[in-house]
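Try this one yourself first.
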């Protein structure tokens, strides 16, 4: 339990510094450049999911379960990372050669090609080593390191808001190097703590690693499309400026998912571990607490974002506040899905996550096609709420069907919930 609470606290502070860095970059960029940055994030994430084939989740699960030796797991990590980077290099170079545009931002400049390559390389190594550290039950150290890096980056950017810019920072270039700046300290730390060697991977090893990866890959691809298909549809009917406004509103809404995502990432290896003492009853307590805590977070997001729209961000971003209000209900309900999906993944009930993601994607796509042409970013926000709510209803139904509990056990808060949760001991440690 100490691993989850402490690691989660570091991760929470990291996410807030990360959000602060995003705000400063939005301030420096304006809606057009921030729209391009948002488009690059989406396209890079899609390419990362497709080329990664779900290997990050497989690394975490197999490491936590002790299904694969550390040497073999490290070999798999390095090989899969190099594979992803080479695939991106060949595809992006071919795309630039034949279309004259870069693959992530559709820019005509060779400079953007190299910046996108550095961004993607950093993204791959960052995700791989976060997975390795989580699989090795080193989530506290992992989150402590990336918190320190992101805090330093925030301090570097902060003076620019006050007109002090001795480095003459280009927001786009600066952003492209952020993942690599976080990945390098993780790589150095891990290899100083762990001595690992390259090891031959047998067919049985590969079958075990890739069978888990493939299902996660399909599910993650569908889920990410559900998260971000609205970006592409907005860009088709609107422009990069509107996308930038919508992307910033989306970033505010995603603050609601910070705590659930942290807990989900930390609980998957905890549940999967043979020494785990986390059962459905304990998990239901966690879920109840997060559901009600998130109501307060919703109110805080509305108040804080309103203040930032009025007093920090350029005036043209303010149109996103109404979109934020439309999308927040769906983001709130999806908090439940995030937590339940972690439990399904740890139990290898991956097909439930697959169908939940598919429902989410289909509903959002239909809603966006119907609403965005007429209502723009507000239609996209409403589409999010409809799709996320539909996915949540399905996941709740499946959890209740596969556990001995009813709706009141999942949603009715008990007086001793907080006390019991903080007395849990997943790994027989103090």
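Now uncover the answer:
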């Amino acid at each position: 339990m100490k691993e989850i609470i402490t690691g989660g606290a570091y991760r929470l502070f990291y996410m807030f510094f990360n959000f602060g860095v995003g705000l400063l970059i939005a301030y420096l960029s304006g809606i057009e450049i921030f729209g391009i940055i948002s488009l690059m994030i989406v396209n890079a994430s899609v390419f990362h999911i497709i080329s990664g084939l779900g290997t990050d989740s497989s690394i975490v699960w197999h490491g936590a379960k002790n299904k694969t030796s550390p040497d073999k797991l490290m070999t798999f990590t390095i090989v899969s990372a190099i594979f992803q980077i080479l695939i991106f290099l060949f595809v992006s170079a071919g795309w630039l050669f034949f279309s004259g545009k870069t693959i992530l931002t559709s820019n005509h400049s060779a400079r953007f090609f190299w910046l996108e390559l550095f961004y993607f390389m950093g993204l791959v190594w960052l995700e791989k080593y976060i997975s390795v550290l989580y699989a090795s039950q080193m989530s506290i150290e992992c989150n402590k390191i990336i918190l320190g890096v992101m805090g330093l980056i925030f301090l570097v950017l902060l003076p620019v808001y006050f007109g002090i810019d001795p480095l003459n920072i280009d927001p786009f270039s600066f952003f492209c190097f952020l993942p690599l700046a976080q990945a390098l300290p993780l790589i150095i730390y891990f290899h100083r703590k762990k001595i690992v060697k390259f090891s031959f991977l047998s067919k049985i090893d590969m079958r075990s690693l890739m069978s888990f990866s493939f299902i996660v890959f399909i599910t993650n691809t569908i889920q990410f499309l559900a998260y971000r298909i609205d970006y592409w549809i907005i860009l088709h009917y609107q422009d990069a400026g509107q996308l930038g406004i919508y992307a910033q509103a989306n970033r505010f809404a995603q603050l609601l998912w910070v705590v659930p995502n942290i807990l989900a990432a930390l609980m998957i290896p905890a549940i999967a571990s043979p020494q785990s003492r986390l059962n459905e009853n304990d998990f239901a307590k966690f879920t109840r607490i997060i559901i009600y805590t998130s109501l307060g977070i919703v109110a805080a997001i509305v108040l804080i974002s309103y203040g930032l729209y009025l007093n920090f961000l350029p005036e043209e971003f303010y149109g996103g506040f109404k979109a934020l209000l439309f999308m927040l209900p769906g983001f709130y309900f999806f908090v439940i899905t995030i937590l339940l999906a972690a439990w399904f993944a740890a139990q290898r009930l991956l097909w439930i996550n697959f169908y939940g993601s598919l429902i989410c994607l289909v509903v959002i796509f239909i809603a966006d096609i119907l609403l965005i042409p007429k209502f723009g970013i507000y239609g996209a926000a409403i589409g999010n709420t409809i799709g996320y709510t539909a996915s949540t209803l399905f996941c709740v139904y499946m959890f209740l069907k596969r556990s001995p509990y009813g709706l009141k056990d999942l949603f009715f808060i008990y007086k001793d919930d907080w006390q019991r949760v903080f007395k849990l001991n997943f790994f027989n440690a103090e």
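Discussion: Confidence is low (pLDDT under 50) at residues 424-430. The chain has one domain: 2-421.
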